Known about the structure:
- The protein is α/β, with parallel strands linked by helices.
- The chain has a single domain (about 1-155, about 195-200), classed as TIM Barrel (Alpha-Beta Barrel), CATH 3.20.20.70.
- Helices cover about 30% and strands about 20% of the residues.
- The chain has eight helices and ten strands.
- The strands form two sheets. The chain has an eight-stranded mixed sheet. It has a two-stranded antiparallel sheet with strand order 1-4.
- Helix 4 (about 105-110) links the parallel strand 6 (about 95-100) and strand 7 (about 115-120).
- The radius of gyration is 17 Å and the shape is globular.
- The mean pLDDT is about 95.
Amino acid sequence: MNIHGLQKMTLLDFPGRVACTVFLGGCDFRCPFCHNFELIDGSEKPIMDDKELLAFLKTRTGLLDGVAITGGEPCLHPGLPDLLRDIRTLGFATKLDTNGYHPDRLREILEEGLVDYVAMDIKNSPDKYAVTCGVETIDLSRITESIELLKNSNVDYEFRTTVVQELHEPQDIVLIAEWIDGAKHYYLQRFTDRDSVPFEGLHAPSIEQLQGFAATAAAILPDVSLRGVDA
């Protein structure tokens, strides 16, 4: 398996762990606000393969205690379960970031206990899902299936939405919260523009808007938090 990026140490990507972050290429979505679009369109070349990654991780035993796998969309790769097994054999905890569009692979990973934490993106309310993902059509049943898999698993998890001023309104947050009702953790992330974002004209919500969205979600969900807001 090709590895398209590696952040050698992070205190942010894996809650409660000193981790590295591994980036896999490819995605079935084309979200206009994506920060990692170079991983999606094929312009970012691989930096190593899985064997080289495992060799690197062996040198980090005792320095890191976790590995976060992100993308792109990691669950596109048939070899993902094998990679997670190999990483865990080295003694590292594992975290998976996913868009939830591959419930069969997610189920395999959860049932075998290959991850300690999963972060699943909830892009928007159902009616706006396709446009927010940058695709013409989408099978929402696959997203719903992944939501239910996580809610009924024994693995710690979070759902998260990156809030973009042009794409999200208060009613969208209500519909998302109802969709994931019963979730352990829900995070609202403030969009930040970067050079790697593929489309211009998108803006972050104000802090006041984001706080209002959080209050809306908190009327339905027990644990709602913000990211991307300076203390």
